[in-house]
Amino acid sequence: MQKTLKRVIGASVVVVSGIVLAGCGKTSSGVQQTATIMEQADISSLDSTMITDVGALETVNNSEEGLYRMKNSTTVTPGIAKAIVKPTNGQTVYTFKLRKNLKWSNGDALTANDFVYSWRRAVNPTSKVADAYMFLPIKNAKQIENGKMSVNKLGIQAVNKTTFKVTLSEPTPYFKYLVASVPFLPQDQKVVEKYGSGYGTSSQKAVYDGPFTVQNWSTSSVTWTLKKNPNYWDKQNVKLKTVKFQVAKSPETALSLYQSGKLDNIVLAGQQAAQEKNNKGYLSYASGETDYLAYNYRSKAMRNENIRKAISLTINRKSLTQDVLKNGSKVPYGLAPEDISKNPATGKDFAKDSSVKQSVAYNPTLAKKYWAKGLKQLGVKKLDLKLVCYDVDAFKNSAEYVQAQAKKYLSGCNINIDVQPKVQAITTMQKKRGYDIGFTNWIASYPDLNEFFQLLNTNNVNNAGNYSNKQYDSVYERANGTDATSLQKRYDDFKKANQIAMKDQAIAALNQGQIARLNRPNLKGVSYAAAQGISLKNAYRTK
């Protein structure tokens, strides 16, 4: 399920291998340093603590900066912190040294207190922040979010104006990615309190510390502009003077605008990706997404392992991705997509290294055998199953493909598709009632395996199928507990967890997502981080 409805299908990603469009970083004399970028939907806010939509993430990530930045989708680089910090005290204490003389776009000094204010605001239960859960690794965050402790007890401290200290409740290997994400950005308390509930509702009611400032935006805007921020600490490396964002909800309209030179960077949808694959500006990168069938274990039929395996074995993932989706998505290996993690010892990608071949195989002959065995165990001759999915074209098309394949090969299998609005479908799956199979997905917010394996942990709110396995839970807890400080042991734990779940056919992974774009060939230096979309700090124009 998409985290708190944050990620819009095909809009961006959440976190995997990034791409940087080649270039030396120099500008060509006489070239106007401007760019026009497609946004797929209106954006809701510029309040970094509150935003939940990808479009806003892209704008905020280009106008704000935290302790770290995502260099690409798996690597962090120092932002307004001087260096990448090595944790102390059993890997639970991070002491960040900020750059000197940092300023907000309004001239206010930016200090360690701006992080204290922002992070306390995020975990305060009265703020009702959708991403508050991301702060849970910090000492006392859980008790604060449950209303049992004051926000002043959060494990953070402004030691002085340029020193910010964070204490975690336990070692958290992915913490470096969290502090590079939007919810962990600093905020100017004076400005936030000046505008109150109106903060971030227009570009004038916000303040910026990143490469650009936002101009001419309000919640009704379909275009807005980024302008180079003269107060940004690294302004000498920002080449673009202005960037125009333009909402283009129709993929056909976006492509037409690109072809006529009115947009420089667009996201391609479905068939467009296949048609434009040979275009010089075409690029595709992993979105950190897995689409999958969640079998509802409260359904008697779905508790039968043979039934689950039979359905999965009728699905030709290669045909699904190439002939149905046609959007660059790839055949999956298991729960986690590629480019999330690699074996510390061998460098092999986790997805391939931990795969259980039969869990994503296409074998109708074997499927029929499992199906017959499952029906016999259930004492029935046919099954009518309800499949719930979001009202998203890619989901509906995939669900119809699954339905057709099951009907073709499994005698007596009737899969009835119930298309629901996204909010309703997610609520249905969270309640674990009213369906046999849930068609859902997950897009990582940061490049760590825990993002995917929490999905199958017993009683996790995002465990759409209510899967429960004591051995799985034990290995999962070890990865986040006793083995958290050992890269290899933690990796091996997640590898074992994947193999346990895939041998169980806990879910049926259908595809791993890709984002396909067209980028004007003379717009260089654009980079992409899966969780944060497009980054323009180092972008520039050539002739």
Radius of gyration: 24 Å
CATH topology assignment of the largest domain: D-Maltodextrin-Binding Protein, domain 2
Average pLDDT reading: 92
Structure summary, number of beta strands = 20
Helix content estimate: 25-40%
What is the CATH class name of the largest domain?
Alpha Beta
- Major sheet: size, sense and barrel closure? 6 strands, mixed
Whole-number count of domains: 2
Which structural class do you get from the secondary structure elements?
A: alpha+beta
What is the 3D shape? globular
**% residues in beta strands:** 15-25%
Strand order of the largest sheet: 11-16-12-15-13-14
Q: CATH homologous superfamily of the largest domain? A: Periplasmic binding protein-like II
How far apart, in Å, are the first and last alpha carbons?
A: 44 Å
Q: Helical stretch count?
A: 16
Low-confidence stretches: 1-18, 22-27
Examine the secondary-structure arrangement and name the CATH architecture of the largest domain: 3-Layer(aba) Sandwich
GO biological process, one term: peptide transport
InterPro entries: Peptide/Ni-bd, SBP_5, SBP_5_CS, SBP_5_dom
Keywords: Peptide transport, Protein transport, Signal, Transport
Protein name: Solute-binding protein family 5 domain-containing protein
Question: Overview of this structure, please?
Answer:
With 543 residues, the chain is of the alpha+beta class. The protein folds into 2 domains: 34-247 and 520-541, Periplasmic binding protein-like II (D-Maltodextrin-Binding Protein, domain 2); 288-515, Dipeptide-binding Protein, Domain 3 (Dipeptide-binding Protein, domain 3). 27% of the residues lie in helices and 20% in strands. It is built from 16 helices and 20 strands. The protein has helices spanning 54-63, 113-123, 141-145, 175-178, 189-195, 251-259, 271-275, 305-313, 317-325, 350-353, 364-378, 393-409, 422-431, 450-453, 470-479, 487-504; strands at residues 19-20, 34-39, 68-70, 76-78, 93-97, 156-160, 163-167, 212-215, 223-228, 242-247, 265-267, 282-295, 383-390, 413-420, 437-443, 507-519, 523-524, 527-529, 533-535, 540-541. It has a 6-stranded mixed sheet, sandwiched between helices. A 4-stranded mixed sheet has the order 2-10-9-8, covered by helices on one side. A hairpin with a 7-residue loop joins strand 8 (212-215) and strand 9. Helix 8 (305-313) packs antiparallel against helix 11 and helix 15 runs antiparallel to helix 16. The longest helix has 18 residues, at 487-504. InterPro entries: Peptide/Ni-bd, SBP_5, SBP_5_CS, SBP_5_dom. One of its GO terms (cellular component) is periplasmic space. It is a lipid-anchor.
